[in-house]
Amino acid sequence: MADRLRLREDRSWNLDDGVAVRGGAFVDDEYREGPELHTAFAGVDTLAAFVAALDRVAGFFAVAIDTGEGCLVAVDHARSIPMVYAPERMLVGDDARALREDGEATSWDPVAESELLVGGNVLDNRTLDPGVRTVRPGEAVWIGPEDVETIRYAAFDPRTDGPAHDAAAEERLSDAIDAAFDRFARLVGDRRVAIALSGGADSRLVVTELASRDVDLLAYSFGREDAEDVRVARRVAALLDVPWVHVPYSSDRWREWYLGDERSAYVRSAAQLDAIPNYGAMPSIAALRERGYLPSDAVCSSGQTVAGLSEDLPVPPDRDCPTREAVVEGIVRYWSRWRVDDGAFEAVLREQIAGTLPGGDPLSLAEALGAMERWKLDERHSKYFLAEVRQYDFHGLDWWLPLWDPQVVDAWADVPFARRRGKQCYRELVDRRFAGAAGIPVADAAGLGVSVTAPTTIGRLIDDVAERVVDTPVAPLLAGVYWRLQRARSDYGDHPLGWYGILPPELFAQLYSGREDIHAMQALETVGRASFVDGTVTDPPVDGVLSLPYGGES
Asked: What CATH homologous superfamily does 5-152 map to?
């Protein structure tokens, strides 16, 4: 192994002559992995030559090069395979802990630790360790003896101008999806593809497209038997005549898994010191392997999609021409999982976010939402949602994300924001394609997952009212009442995936105020403030308000 490349030997790296590649990609429309992908970067020793080589590669990969004078490192447009580097020591690797100067020491950068506690990830290219940096999505980095230079060779740049509707752009999106699934089917060949099917639009599209291409397909779902997602997924699989397996989840099952060896081994394997781990599918993958549904050469996938960046966008309060301050506030509200009362940290946080926004004040609504989409990619999707593929890596299974295909990403970015927002044109496309494949009316496809006959519950009524008043002057006055009601209607065993079972019930009761999700709880354990195994917590939040390590020091 080259001296400056610190790569885990249990991962599928191809290393030769100081060049290491991992993953697979299409190069000039020919799929390559291992030694074949390696040749795309042979002889590269400058950042300019590196970017030129990367421009020809489209897929899910990471590459690191020890040039002798320094290091080059890059990840794909989605950062599907994370890479880190220690600029002061000119080291590159795939395990942040291995690059730490002090090994397993537990002292973190206080700003980074505060960010991870509040939002579930460290912002920008930083990690909990101030001496270790991450490579951002679509970024190429040169780490030399005197400088570090970065280029976003594949930055996501959503459209913020032009007409509200563009039929040609939507047609390009449709063509890109066709091309992406054609490539995926070609790549898979006669191997089995296992799709995590929630019944939502995204995984429904993946199953629809692969079923139409006669791929050996298995759809599986996990969660409680009575969960809405499971009910819809079963219906989707039946309509498409696709084999479907359900893996039941419960609080007890999660507790058993969390106390087992697999969880601790997985966390050691997946941790990168910049985000909480994603392990929502782990028990189901293990169960499918034990039951013989996943052969060793199976390819795993899910509904992960670039269109998700345009869903649940935090709309700024001044909707027509948002100020930069309003955009920052919208992002903070979307990102924060805990409440804080720390003016020094909040000032640093807002400054960090403001630095990612385009120039101008106020912004157009399209510019504001486009900035939020870019921010979601860099800070939530690439660091948490896309990290679900680490679960397939852990089990030694290949994977591919057709709805993050670079051609699909570029086509989605070119759709006008009015049709991207809320995944509007994408949902319509999914409904049309699924309806055609299932032989049902488009209106029925659009209504899947919506129980129109179910009685209105108190919980739904509370949520409806909250959604209507969230951006109005009365919201602060009603917040306390809302959260008391939310806490009263939530309980340890209520989660449709049983996720609260990772905590012992006594610790859940101590931490949960009604505002937090399971990811907020995970943040406490990721930085060592809580142990879900022992059921202990240090400096617990008070009524959902979290104290932070950052106290305003420079």
From this structure: Aminohydrolase, N-terminal nucleophile (Ntn) domain (3.60.20.10)
